[in-house]
Recover the amino acids of this structure.
């Protein structure tokens, strides 16, 4: 298990080989055994295999080609609808139509997604998460016909790898792990601990001609400039998506 987790790489290119229905069912079944808040299992997953539906998801996920290549796309959702229906049919006092309900479902969905990811990797499949799920949450809700109380949290492409990428760099564990109290880093410690990442990322970007040109044209001189530029995670993008998320959470009955 430790070796499997330590060998993880996201896979973005897949062979034509389909995933056997019984195998996919076994993988999804591992998600059922995941821990969940109060054992309420406030998550659902939409399985997309149909080519036309995958094409629509490809459009919604910023045309990431892995959506077309992968035989299976899984959209994990926070699901408070089922819980609320159970409460309704039993005429109990209604709840879960709020931010806490949404966050509960979000954590449950993410845990199930990661359990299924590891199970998939254990049988030689490759996976990649898609953060674009948040960016197009309103349109994904419409396309997948998600009822009130259901919200897409993350998506996975799953398939047999057609690439064998190197392990990506990681920040040192000491940055994530704090003993007893949060340890703030000095400017020098921030610089030193991120130096290797900066060098590797810069070399990777410059090795791709299209990215290298983009960086030069936009006058981007450092990896952090790139991360906050219009090409990655700009403040404008964050504001726009954050506003849409709040409005969509309200519309789905998951705010206040
Ligand atoms: C929540 C989440 C969203 C992600 N979204 C995307 C995405 O939209 N497109 C993509 O190519 N990779 C995406 N990734 C994959 C990350 O880029 C990847 O995990 C990271 O670069 C580390 O690489 P590794 O998984 O190969 O170790 C996402 C990962 C997570 C956990």
């Amino acid at each position: 298990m430790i070796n499997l987790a330590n060998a993880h790489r996201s896979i973005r290119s897949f062979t034509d080989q389909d995933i056997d229905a019984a195998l996919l069912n076994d993988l999804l079944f591992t998600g059922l055994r995941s821990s969940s808040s109060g054992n309420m299992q406030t998550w659902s997953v939409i399985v997309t295999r149909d080519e036309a539906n995958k094409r629509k998801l490809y459009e919604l996920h910023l045309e990431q080609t892995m959506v077309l290549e992968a035989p299976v796309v899984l959209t994990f959702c926070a699901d408070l609808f089922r819980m609320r229906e159970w409460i309704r049919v039993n005429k109990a006092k209604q709840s879960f139509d709020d931010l806490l309900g949404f966050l509960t479902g979000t954590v449950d969905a993410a845990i199930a997604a990661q359990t299924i990811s590891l199970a998939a990797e254990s049988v030689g499949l490759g996976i990649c998460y898609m953060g674009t799920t948040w960016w197009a949450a309103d349109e994904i809700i419409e396309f997948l016909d998600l009822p009130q109380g259901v919200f897409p949290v993350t998506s996975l492409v799953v398939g047999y790898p057609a690439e064998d990428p190197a392990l990506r760099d990681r920040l040192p564990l000491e940055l994530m792990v704090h003993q007893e109290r949060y340890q703030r880093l000095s400017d020098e410690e921030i610089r030193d601990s991120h130096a290797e990442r900066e060098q590797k990322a810069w070399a990777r970007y410059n090795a791709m001609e299209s990215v290298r040109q983009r960086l030069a044209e936009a006058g981007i001189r450092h990896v952090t400039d790139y991360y906050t530029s219009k090409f990655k995670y700009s403040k404008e993008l964050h504001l726009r998506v954050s506003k849409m998320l709040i409005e969509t959470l309200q519309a789905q009955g998951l705010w206040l």
Observations:
- The pocket of flavin mononucleotide is lined by residues 8-10, 12, 64, 128-132, 154, 168 (CB under 6 Å).
- DSSP finds 13 helices and four strands in the chain.
